[in-house]
Specification:
The chain is α+β, with helices and mostly antiparallel strands. The protein has 2 domains: 77 residues, Ubiquitin-like (UB roll) (Roll), CATH 3.10.20; 69 residues, [2Fe-2S]-binding domain (DNA polymerase, domain 1). Helix content is 37%, strand content 13%. The protein has 6 helices and 5 strands; from the N terminus they run ββαβββααααα. Strands 2-1-5-3-4 form a 5-stranded mixed sheet. α3 crosses α6 and α5 packs across α6. The longest helix is centred in the last third of the chain and has 16 residues. It starts with a strand and ends with a helix. The structure holds FE2/S2 (inorganic) cluster (2 copies). One FE2/S2 (inorganic) cluster binds next to loops. It comes from Muricoccus nepalensis.
Length: 156
């Protein structure tokens, strides 16, 4: 079955390797070869694989690829570029919010979902939004500061 969906703002087509192939694999393999979403636990527990589907954060390791038919998928690559980073990407850099960086994709994508729903979240709302995203380096405090910085920048 050929899937047709939107990927980072462009029409995309793909043939899943199996009916239950996780979306994460489809995105990371050829022809897309997107390495923003990471494989962490593979069990919807850590958040490293998070992408946006129709604007909402989804754990792509546990989301069947075939379910994206007709939907809009955004990965970290579609949020911003090195030349023109999204305010969240700029804020994570500015705050030094990340050590090994393995969790960064999930933290940023989950935060993008949060800021699309709540333009000026409180510290506790940011912490709550990121509570299910694991960071083994213990970088949560800087990440919370980065999300607050991005929210302020986006509010102008
Ligand atoms: S790899 Fe998907 S939640 Fe951990
Ligand atoms: S910065 Fe290393 S896991 Fe979060």
């Amino acid at each position: 079955m050929t899937l047709r969906f939107t990927l980072n703002g462009r029409p995309a087509e793909a043939e899943p390797a199996a009916p239950d192939q996780p979306l994460l694999y489809l995105l990371r393999e050829e022809p897309f070869a997107l390495n923003g979403p990471r494989f962490g636990c593979g069990l919807a527990q850590c958040g490293a694989c998070t992408v946006l589907i129709d604007g909402r954060a989804v754990r792509s390791c546990s989301y069947p690829a075939e379910a994206v038919e007709g939907q809009s998928v955004t990965t970290l690559e579609g949020l911003g570029t090195k030349e023109s980073p999204h305010p969240l990407q700029a804020a994570f850099n500015a705050e030094g919010a990340g050590q090994c960086g393995y969790c960064s994709n999930g933290m940023i994508m989950q935060s993008a979902d949060l800021l699309s729903q709540n333009r000026r979240p409180s510290e506790s709302e940011i912490k709550e939004a990121l509570a299910r995203n694991l960071c083994r380096c213990g970088g949560h405090n800087r990440m919370v500061a980065a999300v607050a910085r991005a929210a302020a920048a986006m509010a102008g």
